[in-house]
Amino acid sequence: MKKSLLLILTLFTFCSASYCQENNESSGADVEQKTKIINFFTNDVSHKATFEVQANNHNNLNTFTLGTSAKVEANMKELCITTGFDLFYKTFSFTSDITYEPTLFNIWNIGARMINHYTWSYNTYFEYDFLVGLGTKIQPLPNLYFSAAVLYQQKNSHIKAIKDEVPKVVSNCPAFELLACYEPLDWMSFTLIFSSFTFTKYYLFFSPNTRIKAEFMVNPFLYIGISGEIQFVDFFTLSANFNRFSTVINITWRF
What we know:
The protein is mostly beta strands. The protein is built from one helix and 14 strands; from the N terminus they run αββββββββββββββ. Strands 2-3-4-5-7-8-9-10-11-12-13-14 form a twelve-stranded antiparallel β-barrel. It is globular, with a radius of gyration of 25 Å.
C-alpha cells in the first residue's frame, strides 16, 4: 500500500512539474513575441481573394464604363504579395504588388515595396508601369492602423498611332499612397485612401484618387464592400479638373 501511494505521489509530482514547465515556456514565448524589438518574418499566412465590379462616370458625366477586376493576396504580416487583373472594354491589365516591411515593437512596420503593372488596350496602346520605394504601417490600436508609401514610378507607353516616329514614351515621376483603416466593430470596417494610383490604374503624379470604402462581414470567410472613388487631373495646380467618379462593389473570401 505504501509503495502504491509513493508511486502515485511520484507520478503526480512529475506531471505537475512538466505542466508548469510547458506553461512557463509558452508564456515566455508569448512575452518574447510581444516584446521583441524587430521581427523579420511571420510564419502564419492569411489569404484573401477579391472580386470587384466597377462603374465609372467620366468628366462629362455622360460617358459610362463598366469593368471587373479580381485579385489574390497572401499576407504574412511582414511580407505581402498581391496579384490580379482588371478588365474593361477593349482594355486588360495585370498587376503584381510585393511589400516587405519588418515589424518593430509589434506595432510598426517599415520596409520596401515594388509594383509591376501591364496594360493592353486593343489596337491602341501598351503600357508598363514600374514602381519601387518605401512603405510603412503603424497600428496604435487593435482596430486602427495607418499606412503610407512613397515610390518612384516609371511609365513606358507604346502608342500605335505614333510608333513609327516615337517607338516609346517614357515618363518618370513620384508616386504615393496614404491609407487609414478603422474597425468600429468586428464585422465592420471603414477605409480612406488618398493616392496617385490604385491597384489597377496608374496615372501620373498630378492625378490622385480619393477612395472611401465600407466593408461588412457576412460570415468569418465572406465579406461584402462598397466604395466610392473620385479622381482629379492637375490636382496640385490651380487648374484641377474632375476626371472620373467610380462606384465599386466587392466580394472578398478570406481563407
